What does this fold into?
Amino acid sequence: MEKRKIKVLIVDDQALVLDILVKGLSRDPGIEVVGTATDGQLALNQIPRLQPDVIVLDMEMPRMNGIQFLHKLMPISPIPTIVLSALTQKDSRITQEAFELGAVDFLPKPSGGARALPTLFVQLWTKIRIAATQDVSHLKKLSQPKTLPSNELDRKARTNQNILGMGAFDVTDEQGRILKIFALGSCVGLALFCPPTPIIGMAHVVLPSSSTDTTKASNLPGYFADTAVNIMLERMNDYGCTNARIVAKLAGGAKTNVDIGDYFGIGQRNAVAVKAALLKKGVKILGEDLGGNISRTVHSRVGESKLYLMHPDKGNWEI
It folds into this structure.
């Protein structure tokens, strides 16, 4: 039986961008673009009829922007949403707001013109496939605002948080900086520390082994357990941290509704793969919060060796 295609709705106010995205995404045989909209209100009107599996969402649009759209959509009909905008850098306030409202991933629009499009589409194809497996039903607990925020977005506002989407990683020693991953399901958040230095690293690991797709591993090394561990250790070694000094903490690897019938689900395989990769490199694991069926948001601060966790029902805790 032929596998059902992932149905995608694209929301962007620029006709040229819509045309490029429709043509680019349609090149993937597993993706079907079922509709486009030029603002959030038009998208909301189409969703009951189109029933998309994933939404690709711009931020800056007339009438209803991306933040307003997420405010309206998620408490009523949560759908995995990837934000694609020139305004969504990893440390922008807009990115943080989008994730707090339920976005599952983001990509900044490339500034390199046509030359950047092949890389963009490789990343989008990957992120759409993973987004389609995300269980966002818990977002119905969000309260719908009586009044929407302003349609004017603060393009320049920055935060002290670097948000890591699926397959992203970061290593930093910048004082006051926080590395954060929202809503880990079957993915694993890997945090590395190098005491007594302030250096920390974090990766948002999606799948266990890069052998399943070496091209994807080259473009997104943080996506796979083995390549994520390797690239992060290389970056920390560049800072002068040897593997013997580095310690790790892990969170996530939950059993989601997507793999509920899988005896040995992807979450457990991710956790096992990350641990094996760390053991191979001689990195000690100091703490973990893995498994179960909850979606964890995690963060670490430069200068600390703690991994902070949060779940809407469970509250806040740390390892």
About this structure: DSSP finds eight helices and 15 strands in the chain.
